[in-house]
Amino acid sequence: MAAAAAAATMVSSAGGLLAMLNESHPQLKFHALSNLISFVDQFWPEISTSVPIIESLYEDEEFGQHQRQLAALLVSKVFYYLGELNDSLSYALGAGPLFDVSKDSDYVHTLLAKAIDEYASLQSKAAESSDEAAKIDPRLEVIVERMLDKCITDGKYQQAMGTAIDCRRLDKLEEAITKSDNVHGTLAYSINVSHSFVYRREYRQEVLRLLVKVYQQLPSPDYLSICQCLMFLYEPEGVANILEKLLRSENKEDALLAFQVAFDLVENEHQAFLLNVRDRLSAPKSLTSESEQPGSSDPPPAQNENSTAPEDVQMTDGSSAVTTNVPEADPKEVIYAERLTKIKGILSGETSIQLTLQFLYRHNKSDLLILKTIKQSVEMRNSVCHSATIYANAIMHAGTTVDTFLRDNLDWLSRATNWAKFSATAGLGIIHRGHLQQGRSLMAPYLPQGGAGGGGSPYSEGGALYALGLIHANHGEGIKQFLRDSLRSTNVEVIQHGACLGLGLAALGTADEEIYDDIKTVLYTDSAVAGEAAGISMGLLMVGTASEKASEMLAYAHETQHEKIIRGLALGIALTVYGREEEADTLIEQMTRDQDPILRYGGMYALALAYRGTANNKAIRQLLHFAVSDVSDDVRRTAVLALGFVLYSEPEQTPRIVSLLSESYNPHVRYGAALAVGISCAGTGLSEAISLLEPLTSDVVDFVRQGALIAMAMVMVQINEASDSRVGTFRRQLEKIILDKHEDTMSKMGAILASGILDAGGRNVTIRLLSKTKHDKVTAIVGLAVFSQFWYWYPLIYFVSLSFSPTAFIGLNYDLKVPRFEFLSHAKPSLFEYPKPTTVPTTTSAVKLPTAVLSTSAKAKARAKKEAELKANSEKSSGAESSSAAPNTGKGKSSSEKDGEAMQVDSPPEKKAEPEPSFEILTNPARVVPAQEKFIKFLEDSRYVPVKLAPSGFVLLRDLRPNEPEVLSLTDAPASTASTAGGSAATGQQSSSSAMAVDDEPQPPQPFEYTS
Question: Which candidate, 543, 618, 716, 772, has a CA 20 to 30 Å from the CA of 485?
């Protein structure tokens, strides 16, 4: 062999060796084969002519095993060079052990990749067609296993895990995870992979089950991740057991962990699941005799707040009464009882809603001047823009409970008639969203008074019922009964409309049969207005249950004559298959093949919601096909829009996929492309998304402009000018459109809504479709899906508020109170601060005084004028710019001071001498924008340590110095404006309660030399 290898350099042709193959003596053939193997890399073109001979050697039974394998390897290499990978692989399998997996050559790499792909596709076919893996070549399996073992022994665990998941070899996956050096890391990686790359839902669940099993075998299990997996698997039993185990633990930290788990689950917004978990937590032992009745026997307590409170009282009384009988179990059970009350509050969503409400109220930075400008520039006669202004106000103050604008403009508001009145009343629901305790009393003046439709107009009554649904969206235990009674006791279609929407929101995803029947009764009255709401409401109720109800909804949609009802039902049916991926295919097929374009349109939504955020290629292909081929514009528009839902987990992809559609000749398709980008890139401020939308905001067709403006606002929500200068340009563009008398109504409406969304929730919320644990937020996605229906029915605009999630870091101690706790944002404060408040332009000519006057009081005016004249020579900026950005005025500073939290330089901003600090200290609770999360650091010597290192959201803090007194930041009720948190919120409060109050004095002017 050595001589042959040495001779290899001299040989100039393989002809001689090939001739040897025709000899009769097996020894000669063997010699030829073993030499050809070493020449195959140079002489494969020559050898390829004799492939049939070598193949016949491989098939020759009399030839020895080793020789035959050698022949197979040779043929395999020749085929590899010829580019016939399939043949090459089948011969390589024939070569058995001679095909060396560990060799580092292109040939081996290519064939291994081919083998793994082949194996993976065979495995998934076998899994889908249910005949056991009969067709898989055992030799192929051996190669794949050798490869996996090699990865594991080389320590390339991630490769091994990826391959194992692809090949459906869960045994190997488990081996790779358990052998790896950082088990928690690899587990997190595999959870991530299974969400991003496993396209079949059933298989993904198998993977997650395995991961849960591995997690539970660890010495210190990561309960946060386990519970997330169990939530994906929909196993409330498992979650309840873990929570109970943690709550019963002696260790206080375990209880903190349990609370953290609960908050993380609440963030995924799956009401039915959370209530299920809550009802499975067992009552404290020593007190079962008494608290069994109110606590656990009736799973849906009438009003959650009031059901836990008396139970709590009973626990303490019970424990003191029972001491004589069961002395030993007692103190533990009392602790457990107290923890249980807390965790029930968290799971029902009340704790987090309460805290969010306080946060949004405290930090409200909405700018009433923007609304005032809009209100002044909108003509009274134009009801569309009048309503749009009301919508914008509601969105701008979503969840902050600040309704100053409405109170100040009651007479203007009263011009709203009929459905506009409905919307105006419903808007209160968004402003007070989450005000569970006082929700009912706030809406009382508008609600239907007892008796047969007594006082007010049916429109405001219907709106009030819808508002109650918005206030209790996804947390409707306390209000469901009232809404049902209102629905039953009326036959006015407007009130039915409001009650249906309200019920759907309050009972989101609970699949409550009785409520379903109530709504069905309304549907069968066949009234267009009520029927549309009933259809949507059924979908909201059954969200993601894939229930058989869909078929009766579909049947009714075929019977009825009303387009509105068909459209409501089409969307409702789509909502039922939410997140069901391939299980929904038969229904989707049925809807997309329908004669009626409205049902095909529902089919697009069904595709969007069933495959939400999976970026599934099959779904994308189907949607793109409909986007270019359907005859109905509605269906095409929706097909493109639906891409936004399928792709929101990979926002970078969306602009690329819809970029060609955004240049379509069909305006409907362009509109769809704009909203698709808006939905999937919401809150990201993605540069490509903005570039794609910019040309569309000045499209020739009015409704395309409207869509583009709304989408742009969704993308830019909470991005400020320092991070992307185009935000400032966009704000000025909105102002221009709103002020322009000749702009048409459609785009004006778009601009008004866009100004609302840009500053949504007092500038403290963003639009988030994925929670931090990569779970999809059901409410948010459903909210945007129904919101995108506003094309047909404006009141549905309010559903956008369901997708708002507060960008706050809220740290909580063991008592679920908010202690003062400082942490670091390691970035320039200006990158993430609130936008500067707008200012009123002065009436004098713009050239002489480019600065803007600030305060309403005359005293301040005079002072500002003096300042302005000093600056007029130094600044010659255009009037337009100063009116919208005005960074040089005193008020600008006090706003950016973030309630006195930021470490801002104290001198007014004209002095450019001091550089801006490169970090800022934030105080709990703080506003942390998504882009800022990567800069958040926790201080080392702090008194509190977070249970998990999360840059935002609800985080429980371990108190390292529990004996010292705590300073709390949030006081309880957001009712009185006076209660300040440690004085720091005083200025924020002042400006939030009356945006430009007289007492907010501007800064004193700069020191200067006085010359006459």
Answer: 543
If 0-12 CB within 10 Å is exposed, 13-18 middle and 19+ buried, where does residue 457 land? middle
Q: Are 445 and 472 in contact (CB under 8 A)?
A: no
Q: Are 227 and 240 in contact (CB under 8 A)?
A: no
| Confidence band, pLDDT 50/70/90 cuts, at residue 899 | very low
Of 124, 122, 146, 145, whose CA–CA distance to 135 is shortest? 122
Note the pLDDT tens digit of each residue in 248-281.
887 888 888 888 888 888 887 777 788 888 888 8
- Look up residue 232 and give its two tokens: 């994906």
What's the gap between Cα 416 and its chain centre? Answer: 34
pLDDT digits (tens, 9 = 90+) for 2-44: 555 444 455 677 677 777 777 777 777 777 777 777 777 777 7
Helices marked H in 740-825: 745-758, 760-763, 778-787
For 96-108, letters b (16+ CB in 10 Å) and e give beebebeeeeebb
Closest CA to 640 of 551, 711, 740: 711
**CB-based contact 776:613 (threshold 8 Å):** yes
Rounded CA separation 753/804 (Å)? 15
CA distance 668 to 868: 49
Distance (Å, whole) CA 494 – CA 749: 24
- Rounded distance, CA 540 to CA 509, Å? 6
The model's pLDDT over 909-922, given as tens digits with 9 standing for 90+, comes to 444 556 777 778 87
255: left (phi over 0), alpha (psi -120 to 50) or beta: alpha
User: What span, in angstroms and rounded, lies between the C-alpha atoms of 670 and 661?
Assistant: 6
Angle at 102 between CA 98 and CA 103, to 5 degrees: 75
| SS3 (DSSP) at 699 | coil
SS3 418: helix
Neighbours of 912 (CB within 10 A): 8
Cα distance between the two ends of the chain: 108
Give the residue from 690, 738, 691, 733 showing the smallest Cα distance to 715. 690
Query: What's the CA gap between 967 and 871, in Å, rounded?
Result: 44
User: What is the distance between the alpha carbons of residues 494 and 997, in angstroms, rounded to a whole number?
Assistant: 40
pTM, two decimal places? 0.77
pLDDT for residue 130: 63
Angle at which helix 51-59 crosses helix 65-82, to 10 degrees, equals 150
C-alpha 141/C-alpha 145 separation (Å) is 6
For residues 1002 and 853, give the distance between their C-alpha atoms in angstroms, rounded to a whole number: 10
* Contacting residues for 69 by C-beta, under 8 A, at least 6 apart: 94, 95, 96, 97, 98
What are the CA-CA distances from residue 212 to residues 25, 61, 224, 382, 764 (Å)? 61, 51, 11, 58, 36
Q: For residue 938, what is the enclosing H or E element?
A: strand 936-938
Alpha-helical regions (H) of 698-777: 702-716, 726-739, 745-758, 760-763
What's the number of CA atoms in the CB half-sphere (13 Å) around residue 973? 6
Closest CA to 203 of 120, 122, 119, 128: 128
Residue 996 DSSP SS3: coil
- Going from the C-alpha of 831 to that of each of 374, 676, 718, 834, 906, the distances in angstroms are 27, 27, 11, 9, 18
Using CA atoms, how far residue 825 sits from 355, 411, 689, 930, 967, in Å, is 22, 45, 27, 12, 22
The whole-angstrom separation of Cα 720 and Cα 834 is: 7
Query: Can you tell me the distance from the alpha carbon of 870 to that of 831, in angstroms, rounded to the nearest whole number?
Result: 29
The span from the CA of 705 to the CA of 751, in Å, is: 9
Residue 292 above 50 pLDDT?
Answer: no
Question: 204, 105, 100: which is closest to 147 by C-alpha?
Answer: 100
Six token digits for residue 998: 């007289």
